[in-house]
Amino acid sequence: TALVLVLTPLGTVRNGAKRWLFGFQPSEVAKLAIILCMSWLLCRQRKEIHTFKGGLLPCGALLMLFCGLIALEKHISATVLLFAIGAVLMFVGGVDWRWFVGFGAAGVLSALGIIAISDYAMARVRVWLDPFSDPLGDGFQTIQSLYAIGSGGLFGKGFLQGTQIKYNFVPEKHTDFIFCTVGEEWGFLGAVAVLGVMCLLLLRLMKMGERQEEPFGRVYCYSVAAILLFHVLVNVGMTIGLMPVMGIPLPFMSYGGSSLLAFTILLFIAIRLDASTRQFPST
After folding, report:
1. C-alpha neighbours within 13 Å on the C-beta side of residue 157
2. Is the model more confident about 221 or about 167?
3. Which of 2, 56, 110, 283 is deepest in the core (most CB within 10 A)?
4. pLDDT tens profile 40-58
5. Can you list the alpha helix ranges (DSSP code H) found in 45-157?
6. What's the confidence (pLDDT) of residue 191?
7. Please, which pLDDT band fits residue 283 given cuts at 50, 70 and 90?
8. What is the b/e burial string over 60-77, where b = at least 16 CB atoms within 10 angstroms of the residue's CB?
9. Average pLDDT over the chain, rounded to an integer
10. Per residue in 164-177, is it b (16+ CB within 10 Å) or e — as a string?
């Protein structure tokens, strides 16, 4: 419902995009909704999951509904991310690999088509390939991010001592580009420490998934691990020039109430499922 309301006059436009509803970003909570809905659907259809009617059709229809509504908000990065998460869900849930490959190929082609007809997305791709083609425009933030991370060296410049960050050369230093703040102030060792903590969290979620006795819990835990992994890869990748600039926050670090709330709920549900498994072991 919130994804529909944000497209109405109730939605708020910020930075040229209409993605907010009363200061809240529904696309962030949509990740939680799609994981819960698809995990339940995959488990409910488990006996028919290898068939087109029982597996790909209901899951694909649900995923395309969510992705379509977010695409209407011109939030391409969230659309691609949500589609990738849905694909992982279907793969872990047991959808036949032939249907999975076909659905994935269709999704990739659709994404390429959206990028090709969207000037905004094409500009992001061009800047990604050559940030210095527009050093004072779309490429400015990427270039300054690279300077910030590179200038941090091994140990960094110290807390609040980064010149690129302190003098606002990186406009989104507290949100999507917060990793360059870590790189400049705490250096290579600080960046590795942050990535190490993220890896430990991912491994812990996968271990929790393996402990689950019910299919729902296993699919859910692996899906949460996947969504965190995609966020880390894309966010860190765009700050060092390996990925196009997208509105993807770094989990539990980027400023933003909607994303923090969504990630917290995702993690707490996984912890509760794991606690239930430990409390009521199988006999």
Report:
1. 19
2. 221
3. 56
4. 887 777 777 777 776 677 8
5. 57-72, 76-93, 97-117, 119-129, 140-151
6. 93
7. very low
8. bebbbebbebbbebbbbb
9. 80
10. bbeeebbebbeebb
Place of tokens 């509105």: 247
CA distance 61 to 48: 16
Amino acid present at 65: L
Q: Which of 63, 65, 75, 66 is nearest to 19 (CA)?
A: 75
Residue of 112, 113, 145, 142 whose CA lies nearest to 129: 142
- The pLDDT score that the predictor gives to residue 116 is 57
SS (H, E, C) 17-39: EEEEECCECHHHHHHHHHHHHHH
| Predicted TM-score (pTM) of this structure | 0.82
Residue type, 243: M
- Say how far apart CA 81 and CA 59 lie, in whole Å: 16
